[in-house]
Amino acid sequence: MPAAEFDLIERFFAVKKSSNAATELGIGDDCALLSVPAGYRLAITADTMVENVHFLAGTDPYDLGYKLLAVNLSDLASMGAEPVAVTLALTLPDVDESWLERFAEGFFELAAHYRIDLVGGDTTSGPLTLTVQAMGIVPAGQALRRSGARPGDVIYMTGKLGDAGLGLKIAQGHFSCSQQQAALERFNRPKPRVEEGLELRNIARSCIDVSDGLAQDLGHILKQSGVGACLDWEDLPLSNAVKAYIEATGDWTMPLRAGDDYELCFTVPADKAALLTENFTRIGVIEDGPGLRVHRFGTTELLRVQGFEHFSH
Ligand code: ADP
Ligand code: MG
Protein backbone atom coordinates (compact mmCIF):
# COMPACT_ATOMS: atom_id res chain seq x y z
CA MET A 1 0.00 0.00 0.00
CA PRO A 2 1.44 3.49 -0.85
CA ALA A 3 2.62 5.57 2.12
CA ALA A 4 -0.14 8.17 1.65
CA GLU A 5 -2.82 5.52 1.98
CA PHE A 6 -1.15 4.05 5.01
CA ASP A 7 -1.28 7.50 6.61
CA LEU A 8 -5.01 7.51 5.98
CA ILE A 9 -5.44 4.19 7.75
CA GLU A 10 -3.38 5.54 10.63
CA ARG A 11 -5.51 8.66 10.74
CA PHE A 12 -8.97 7.25 10.38
CA PHE A 13 -8.88 3.60 11.35
CA ALA A 14 -5.93 2.82 13.63
CA VAL A 15 -7.34 2.41 17.11
CA LYS A 16 -5.02 3.72 19.77
CA LYS A 17 -6.11 1.35 22.51
CA SER A 18 -7.94 -1.93 22.13
CA SER A 19 -11.23 -2.14 23.95
CA ASN A 20 -11.88 -5.88 23.73
CA ALA A 21 -10.06 -8.42 25.88
CA ALA A 22 -9.82 -10.79 22.90
CA THR A 23 -7.38 -8.52 21.03
CA GLU A 24 -3.76 -9.50 21.52
CA LEU A 25 -2.48 -7.61 18.46
CA GLY A 26 -4.45 -5.17 16.31
CA ILE A 27 -3.75 -3.08 13.19
CA GLY A 28 -0.15 -2.71 12.02
CA ASP A 29 1.28 -6.16 11.47
CA ASP A 30 0.56 -8.73 8.75
CA CYS A 31 -2.14 -10.36 10.85
CA ALA A 32 -4.05 -9.53 13.97
CA LEU A 33 -3.92 -11.95 16.89
CA LEU A 34 -7.06 -12.77 18.87
CA SER A 35 -7.52 -15.03 21.85
CA VAL A 36 -10.60 -17.20 22.23
CA PRO A 37 -11.52 -18.25 25.79
CA ALA A 38 -11.44 -21.98 26.55
CA GLY A 39 -14.78 -23.65 25.83
CA TYR A 40 -15.81 -21.03 23.26
CA ARG A 41 -16.03 -21.14 19.48
CA LEU A 42 -15.08 -18.34 17.10
CA ALA A 43 -18.06 -17.30 14.94
CA ILE A 44 -16.96 -15.61 11.69
CA THR A 45 -18.97 -13.82 9.01
CA ALA A 46 -18.39 -11.31 6.20
CA ASP A 47 -20.69 -8.99 4.28
CA THR A 48 -19.95 -6.73 1.35
CA MET A 49 -21.79 -3.60 0.25
CA VAL A 50 -21.33 -2.41 -3.34
CA GLU A 51 -22.37 1.06 -4.50
CA ASN A 52 -25.51 1.00 -6.65
CA VAL A 53 -26.14 -2.63 -5.69
CA HIS A 54 -26.47 -2.52 -1.90
CA PHE A 55 -26.70 1.22 -1.39
CA LEU A 56 -27.60 4.26 -3.46
CA ALA A 57 -24.81 6.51 -4.74
CA GLY A 58 -24.66 9.63 -2.59
CA THR A 59 -25.62 7.85 0.64
CA ASP A 60 -24.23 9.61 3.72
CA PRO A 61 -20.90 7.84 4.44
CA TYR A 62 -21.75 7.95 8.16
CA ASP A 63 -24.73 5.71 7.47
CA LEU A 64 -22.59 3.43 5.28
CA GLY A 65 -20.01 2.94 8.04
CA TYR A 66 -22.75 2.29 10.57
CA LYS A 67 -24.75 -0.07 8.38
CA LEU A 68 -21.75 -2.03 7.10
CA LEU A 69 -20.85 -2.90 10.67
CA ALA A 70 -24.48 -3.38 11.74
CA VAL A 71 -25.27 -5.98 9.06
CA ASN A 72 -22.26 -8.04 10.13
CA LEU A 73 -23.10 -7.77 13.82
CA SER A 74 -26.60 -8.90 12.91
CA ASP A 75 -25.16 -12.15 11.55
CA LEU A 76 -23.25 -12.70 14.79
CA ALA A 77 -26.40 -11.90 16.78
CA SER A 78 -28.41 -14.47 14.86
CA MET A 79 -25.92 -17.16 15.96
CA GLY A 80 -26.02 -16.01 19.57
CA ALA A 81 -22.39 -14.86 19.34
CA GLU A 82 -20.87 -11.95 21.25
CA PRO A 83 -18.94 -9.66 18.86
CA VAL A 84 -15.24 -9.14 19.64
CA ALA A 85 -13.37 -7.89 16.56
CA VAL A 86 -13.75 -6.97 12.89
CA THR A 87 -11.59 -6.43 9.83
CA LEU A 88 -12.44 -3.85 7.17
CA ALA A 89 -11.67 -4.06 3.44
CA LEU A 90 -12.21 -0.80 1.58
CA THR A 91 -12.11 -0.40 -2.18
CA LEU A 92 -12.28 3.32 -2.93
CA PRO A 93 -12.48 5.15 -6.28
CA ASP A 94 -10.37 7.97 -4.82
CA VAL A 95 -9.08 9.17 -1.47
CA ASP A 96 -11.75 11.56 -0.23
CA GLU A 97 -10.76 12.57 3.27
CA SER A 98 -14.09 14.03 4.31
CA TRP A 99 -15.84 10.88 3.07
CA LEU A 100 -13.45 8.68 5.07
CA GLU A 101 -13.87 10.79 8.17
CA ARG A 102 -17.69 10.50 8.09
CA PHE A 103 -17.52 6.81 7.25
CA ALA A 104 -15.19 6.19 10.20
CA GLU A 105 -17.49 8.18 12.51
CA GLY A 106 -20.47 5.99 11.72
CA PHE A 107 -18.40 2.82 11.88
CA PHE A 108 -16.79 3.61 15.23
CA GLU A 109 -20.00 4.85 16.82
CA LEU A 110 -21.36 1.32 16.62
CA ALA A 111 -17.99 -0.40 17.25
CA ALA A 112 -17.49 1.57 20.47
CA HIS A 113 -21.01 0.77 21.64
CA TYR A 114 -20.19 -2.94 21.59
CA ARG A 115 -16.47 -2.61 22.51
CA ILE A 116 -15.46 -4.19 19.24
CA ASP A 117 -11.92 -3.69 17.95
CA LEU A 118 -11.07 -3.01 14.33
CA VAL A 119 -8.00 -5.25 14.10
CA GLY A 120 -7.02 -5.09 10.43
CA GLY A 121 -8.13 -4.89 6.85
CA ASP A 122 -7.14 -3.90 3.36
CA THR A 123 -7.35 -0.72 1.32
CA THR A 124 -7.44 -0.80 -2.47
CA SER A 125 -8.51 1.44 -5.30
CA GLY A 126 -11.48 0.62 -7.51
CA PRO A 127 -15.30 0.96 -7.62
CA LEU A 128 -16.68 1.76 -4.13
CA THR A 129 -16.95 -1.59 -2.34
CA LEU A 130 -17.06 -2.03 1.42
CA THR A 131 -16.49 -5.31 3.26
CA VAL A 132 -16.44 -6.13 6.94
CA GLN A 133 -15.50 -9.47 8.37
CA ALA A 134 -16.78 -9.85 11.92
CA MET A 135 -15.70 -12.27 14.61
CA GLY A 136 -17.57 -13.21 17.75
CA ILE A 137 -17.45 -15.84 20.45
CA VAL A 138 -20.11 -18.29 21.55
CA PRO A 139 -19.91 -21.10 24.13
CA ALA A 140 -19.32 -24.46 22.42
CA GLY A 141 -22.63 -26.13 21.59
CA GLN A 142 -24.73 -23.00 22.13
CA ALA A 143 -24.65 -21.35 18.70
CA LEU A 144 -28.14 -20.79 17.25
CA ARG A 145 -28.32 -22.54 13.91
CA ARG A 146 -30.84 -22.46 11.08
CA SER A 147 -31.33 -26.20 11.22
CA GLY A 148 -32.84 -26.63 14.70
CA ALA A 149 -36.56 -25.87 14.16
CA ARG A 150 -39.05 -28.66 15.04
CA PRO A 151 -42.81 -28.97 14.46
CA GLY A 152 -44.66 -27.32 17.33
CA ASP A 153 -41.98 -24.67 17.89
CA VAL A 154 -43.35 -21.17 18.22
CA ILE A 155 -41.94 -18.55 15.82
CA TYR A 156 -40.96 -15.18 17.23
CA MET A 157 -39.20 -12.08 16.00
CA THR A 158 -37.57 -8.95 17.41
CA GLY A 159 -38.66 -5.44 16.53
CA LYS A 160 -40.94 -4.58 13.65
CA LEU A 161 -41.26 -5.87 10.12
CA GLY A 162 -41.05 -3.96 6.84
CA ASP A 163 -39.83 -0.58 8.04
CA ALA A 164 -36.49 -0.84 6.23
CA GLY A 165 -38.22 -1.96 3.02
CA LEU A 166 -40.50 1.03 3.31
CA GLY A 167 -37.47 3.22 4.05
CA LEU A 168 -35.93 2.14 0.74
CA LYS A 169 -39.13 3.05 -1.13
CA ILE A 170 -39.11 6.43 0.62
CA ALA A 171 -35.40 6.99 -0.16
CA GLN A 172 -36.15 6.19 -3.82
CA GLY A 173 -39.06 8.63 -3.84
CA HIS A 174 -41.68 5.92 -4.42
CA PHE A 175 -43.69 6.58 -1.27
CA SER A 176 -44.07 9.18 1.42
CA CYS A 177 -46.06 9.38 4.64
CA SER A 178 -46.15 11.40 7.83
CA GLN A 179 -44.10 8.88 9.86
CA GLN A 180 -41.44 8.34 7.21
CA GLN A 181 -38.48 9.51 9.29
CA ALA A 182 -38.54 6.40 11.48
CA ALA A 183 -38.70 4.10 8.45
CA LEU A 184 -35.77 5.90 6.79
CA GLU A 185 -33.81 5.57 10.01
CA ARG A 186 -34.45 1.80 10.09
CA PHE A 187 -33.23 1.54 6.50
CA ASN A 188 -30.09 3.65 6.99
CA ARG A 189 -29.09 2.57 10.49
CA PRO A 190 -30.43 -0.86 11.33
CA LYS A 191 -29.97 -1.83 14.95
CA PRO A 192 -28.21 -5.18 15.24
CA ARG A 193 -30.01 -7.33 17.82
CA VAL A 194 -26.84 -8.36 19.66
CA GLU A 195 -28.26 -8.42 23.21
CA GLU A 196 -31.34 -10.29 22.05
CA GLY A 197 -29.19 -12.91 20.30
CA LEU A 198 -27.28 -13.51 23.54
CA GLU A 199 -30.54 -13.76 25.46
CA LEU A 200 -31.78 -16.44 23.08
CA ARG A 201 -28.93 -18.89 23.76
CA ASN A 202 -30.40 -21.98 25.45
CA ILE A 203 -33.94 -20.81 24.61
CA ALA A 204 -34.23 -20.63 20.81
CA ARG A 205 -33.86 -23.81 18.78
CA SER A 206 -33.18 -22.04 15.48
CA CYS A 207 -32.52 -18.44 14.50
CA ILE A 208 -31.80 -16.25 11.47
CA ASP A 209 -31.53 -12.52 10.87
CA VAL A 210 -33.93 -11.00 8.40
CA SER A 211 -31.76 -9.49 5.68
CA ASP A 212 -33.57 -10.65 2.52
CA GLY A 213 -37.16 -10.54 3.79
CA LEU A 214 -38.92 -12.62 6.43
CA ALA A 215 -40.46 -15.05 3.94
CA GLN A 216 -37.14 -15.84 2.31
CA ASP A 217 -35.09 -15.94 5.51
CA LEU A 218 -37.61 -17.96 7.49
CA GLY A 219 -37.60 -20.15 4.37
CA HIS A 220 -33.93 -20.93 5.05
CA ILE A 221 -34.86 -22.16 8.54
CA LEU A 222 -37.68 -24.26 7.10
CA LYS A 223 -35.49 -25.79 4.43
CA GLN A 224 -32.52 -26.52 6.67
CA SER A 225 -34.78 -27.89 9.41
CA GLY A 226 -36.99 -29.92 7.04
CA VAL A 227 -40.23 -28.33 8.30
CA GLY A 228 -42.94 -25.86 7.25
CA ALA A 229 -44.62 -22.95 9.01
CA CYS A 230 -47.77 -20.92 9.33
CA LEU A 231 -47.59 -17.21 10.12
CA ASP A 232 -50.47 -15.27 11.71
CA TRP A 233 -50.84 -12.12 9.65
CA GLU A 234 -52.71 -10.23 12.38
CA ASP A 235 -49.82 -10.85 14.82
CA LEU A 236 -47.04 -9.43 12.60
CA PRO A 237 -45.46 -6.41 14.33
CA LEU A 238 -46.05 -3.55 11.86
CA SER A 239 -45.34 0.14 12.42
CA ASN A 240 -47.97 2.78 11.69
CA ALA A 241 -45.96 3.78 8.60
CA VAL A 242 -46.05 0.24 7.21
CA LYS A 243 -49.76 -0.02 8.00
CA ALA A 244 -50.31 3.27 6.17
CA TYR A 245 -48.35 1.94 3.19
CA ILE A 246 -50.45 -1.25 3.04
CA GLU A 247 -53.66 0.73 3.34
CA ALA A 248 -52.59 3.05 0.52
CA THR A 249 -51.32 0.37 -1.85
CA GLY A 250 -52.95 -2.95 -0.90
CA ASP A 251 -49.44 -4.46 -1.00
CA TRP A 252 -49.82 -6.59 2.15
CA THR A 253 -46.93 -8.95 1.33
CA MET A 254 -44.36 -6.10 1.35
CA PRO A 255 -43.36 -6.62 5.01
CA LEU A 256 -42.91 -10.33 4.32
CA ARG A 257 -40.80 -9.78 1.20
CA ALA A 258 -38.81 -6.62 1.93
CA GLY A 259 -35.24 -6.99 3.15
CA ASP A 260 -32.90 -4.93 5.30
CA ASP A 261 -34.83 -5.11 8.59
CA TYR A 262 -32.03 -7.02 10.37
CA GLU A 263 -34.44 -8.28 13.00
CA LEU A 264 -34.02 -11.79 14.40
CA CYS A 265 -36.55 -14.49 13.53
CA PHE A 266 -36.30 -17.59 15.71
CA THR A 267 -38.17 -20.63 16.92
CA VAL A 268 -38.67 -21.76 20.50
CA PRO A 269 -40.03 -25.06 21.82
CA ALA A 270 -43.47 -24.36 23.31
CA ASP A 271 -42.35 -25.28 26.84
CA LYS A 272 -39.59 -22.67 26.76
CA ALA A 273 -41.73 -19.79 25.48
CA ALA A 274 -42.33 -18.62 29.08
CA LEU A 275 -38.57 -17.93 29.39
CA LEU A 276 -38.77 -15.16 26.79
CA THR A 277 -38.93 -11.52 27.90
CA GLU A 278 -41.39 -9.12 26.28
CA ASN A 279 -38.73 -8.04 23.73
CA PHE A 280 -40.22 -10.47 21.22
CA THR A 281 -43.41 -10.93 19.19
CA ARG A 282 -44.99 -14.32 18.49
CA ILE A 283 -45.74 -14.49 14.76
CA GLY A 284 -46.55 -18.13 13.98
CA VAL A 285 -45.77 -21.81 14.47
CA ILE A 286 -43.55 -24.45 12.89
CA GLU A 287 -45.52 -27.28 11.26
CA ASP A 288 -44.80 -30.70 9.82
CA GLY A 289 -45.96 -30.02 6.28
CA PRO A 290 -43.50 -28.17 4.03
CA GLY A 291 -44.16 -24.65 2.75
CA LEU A 292 -44.81 -21.27 4.31
CA ARG A 293 -48.45 -20.44 4.94
CA VAL A 294 -50.08 -17.23 6.10
CA HIS A 295 -53.28 -17.19 8.12
CA ARG A 296 -55.05 -13.97 7.25
CA PHE A 297 -58.64 -12.85 7.84
CA GLY A 298 -59.83 -16.38 8.56
CA THR A 299 -58.21 -18.14 5.59
CA THR A 300 -54.84 -19.79 5.15
CA GLU A 301 -52.90 -19.34 1.95
CA LEU A 302 -49.57 -20.61 0.73
CA LEU A 303 -47.11 -17.77 0.39
CA ARG A 304 -45.41 -17.78 -2.96
CA VAL A 305 -42.52 -15.40 -2.94
CA GLN A 306 -39.15 -15.48 -4.55
CA GLY A 307 -37.11 -18.36 -3.22
CA PHE A 308 -40.20 -20.22 -2.09
CA GLU A 309 -41.46 -22.20 -5.01
CA HIS A 310 -39.33 -25.19 -4.04
CA PHE A 311 -41.21 -25.51 -0.74
CA SER A 312 -44.69 -25.69 -2.16
CA HIS A 313 -46.36 -28.70 -3.60
P1 ADP B 1 -0.22 -6.22 4.01
O1 ADP B 1 0.31 -5.66 2.72
O2 ADP B 1 0.77 -6.97 4.83
O3 ADP B 1 -1.51 -6.99 3.86
P2 ADP B 1 -1.17 -3.57 4.41
O4 ADP B 1 -0.03 -2.66 4.06
O5 ADP B 1 -2.28 -3.80 3.44
O6 ADP B 1 -0.58 -4.95 4.93
O7 ADP B 1 -1.84 -3.04 5.75
C1 ADP B 1 -1.05 -2.61 6.84
C2 ADP B 1 -1.82 -2.75 8.13
O8 ADP B 1 -2.98 -1.94 8.06
C3 ADP B 1 -2.31 -4.18 8.37
O9 ADP B 1 -2.27 -4.43 9.76
C4 ADP B 1 -3.73 -4.14 7.88
O10 ADP B 1 -4.52 -5.10 8.55
C5 ADP B 1 -4.14 -2.71 8.22
N1 ADP B 1 -5.18 -2.17 7.31
C6 ADP B 1 -5.11 -1.93 5.98
N2 ADP B 1 -6.26 -1.41 5.51
C7 ADP B 1 -7.09 -1.33 6.56
C8 ADP B 1 -8.43 -0.88 6.75
N3 ADP B 1 -9.17 -0.42 5.72
N4 ADP B 1 -8.95 -0.93 7.99
C9 ADP B 1 -8.23 -1.41 9.02
N5 ADP B 1 -6.97 -1.83 8.94
C10 ADP B 1 -6.39 -1.80 7.72
MG1 MG C 1 1.54 -8.58 4.78
TrEMBL record:
Catalysis: reaction(s): thiamine phosphate + ATP = thiamine diphosphate + ADP
Keywords for this protein: ATP-binding, Kinase, Magnesium, Metal-binding, Nucleotide-binding, Thiamine biosynthesis, Transferase
Binding site for Mg(2+) 3: 30, 75, 209
Residues that bind Mg(2+) 1: 47, 122
Gene3D superfamilies assigned to the protein according to its UniProt record, in alphabetical order: PurM-like C-terminal domain (3.90.650.10), PurM-like, N-terminal domain (3.30.1330.10)
Source taxon at top rank: Bacteria
Principal EC category: transferase
EC number annotated for this UniProt entry: 2.7.4.16
Binding, substrate: 54, 260, 308
Chain residues that bind Mg(2+) 2: 47, 75
Record domain PurM-like N-terminal: where: 28-138
PurM-like C-terminal domain residues: 150-294
Record-linked CDD domains: ThiL (cd02194)
Binding, Mg(2+) 5: 212
Gene Ontology biological process terms, A to Z: thiamine biosynthetic process; thiamine diphosphate biosynthetic process
Protein residues bound to ATP: 121-122, 146, 211
Pathway given in the UniProt record: Cofactor biosynthesis; thiamine diphosphate biosynthesis; thiamine diphosphate from thiamine phosphate: step 1/1
Primary role: Catalyzes the ATP-dependent phosphorylation of thiamine-monophosphate (TMP) to form thiamine-pyrophosphate (TPP), the active form of vitamin B1.
Similarity comment: family membership: Belongs to the thiamine-monophosphate kinase family.
Other observations noted: Reaction mechanism of ThiL seems to utilize a direct, inline transfer of the gamma-phosphate of ATP to TMP rather than a phosphorylated enzyme intermediate.
Name of this protein: Thiamine-monophosphate kinase
Lineage, opening ranks: Bacteria, Pseudomonadati, Pseudomonadota, Gammaproteobacteria, Methylococcales
